[in-house]
Amino acid sequence: MAAISLQGITKQWGEVHAVRDINFEVKSGDFTVLLGPSGCGKSTTLRLIAGLDSASAGKIEIGGRDVTRLPPAQRKISMVFQSYALFPHLSVRENILFGVKVRKEPARDFEARLKRVSGILGLDALLTRRPGQLSGGQQQRVALGRALIAETPVCLMDEPLSNLDAQLRQEMRREIRALQQQLGITMIYVTHDQTEAMSMADQVILLRNGSIEQNAAPAELYAEPASVFAARFIGTPPMNILPLAESAAGMVIEGSEGRAILPHGGRPLQLGVRPEHIALVERGIPAIVESIEYFGADTIVGARIGAAPLLVRVPGQLSLAAGDRIALDWETRHQYFFDRESGLRCHPA
Description:
By secondary structure, this protein is α+β, with helices and mostly antiparallel strands. It has helices spanning 42-50, 92-102, 110-121, 136-148, 166-183, 194-200, 218-223, 228-233; strands at 4-13, 16-26, 31-35, 57-62, 65-66, 77-80, 154-158, 186-191, 203-208, 211-216, 240-247, 250-253, 269-273, 279-281, 285-294, 298-305, 308-315, 325-329, 336-339, 345-346. 23% of the residues lie in helices and 34% in strands.
C-alpha cells in the first residue's frame, strides 16, 4: 500500500489551473521531491496533500485512507515550512512542544519525546535558548524538532532550506536525509533546487505548468530525460540543446561543417549532449571559444558550433581564451534527440 496517493488532483481558481490532473504514489518510507521552477504547482500540490487548500477534483489518500475532504489536523501529517515560524518569546523547548500541547496529547509522554527529538537533532544544550539566540541552522533544527515530535508517519517540507547559506544548506541536506532514513518517515519535500532533489530523493516528480513532466528516480531523470525541459532542468551546467539541419552528408549541427550526427531525417530534430560528456580533441567538430569560467576542480568553456552555443565541462584549468579555435567530440551513447516542435525525446532510427 502506498503511503500517499494522488489520483487526478486538480486545483483551479476560475479559469486558472494551479495543478492539473496530478497522479502519483509515494511508497512508505520513501523520500520524494516535488521539483520545478517557481509557479509550476509544487507548493500548491503540497498544500493540497496537507489539507491547507482543497482540491477542485480528484482524490488524496494517506495510508490508504481517503483524506480529500478532511482538515489538516485529521490527516496525521507534520509539516515544515520555508519560514521557520518559531515563536520568538518561547524557548527552544517550548517551541518544540507547542504543537503537542495545543493538540492536548498526554503530558506524561512529553519529556521522553522531547529528549529523543532533541538528542537526534543535537539540541540538548539549546533547549533554554530563544530563537533570536540561535543560528539559521539551529532554528531549522528546532522547526524540524517540532515536526518530528508529532511522531506522524508522513512529513511534508516546503523549501525548508531556502533561507540558509550554501554551506549550511549542504550540511542540512545530509542531516535531513539521514534523519528521514533513521526514522523511516515518508517525506515529501518541495524545492526548485535540482541539487537538493538529486542528492536527497528516492523519487523526483518534476513539475511544469501545473502538470507532471517526469516522475523517476534521480539517476533515471539524469540519464533518461523525457523532454528538453527535463534534460535542461537536471544537470549543472544544463544539457546543451543543439538544432540539427539537413546537409549533403546528413543531419549536422545547424550552421556547422562538422560530421553528420544522423542520416537524413524526416522531421526537425534537436541534439542533446551534456557538457561533462564533451571532450576537447585534436580532430573533431570545429568550435570557437566564447568564454572561460574556472572553478578549481573544473573549467566551463563556453563555445559555439556553427550557429549553436554550447558549454563544455572539462577537468582542471585550461590555457584558452575567447576567440580560440578548438575541436570537440563526444561518444554517440551520450547523444539525445528531441522533437523540435514538441520538445519530447525521440529515438530516430
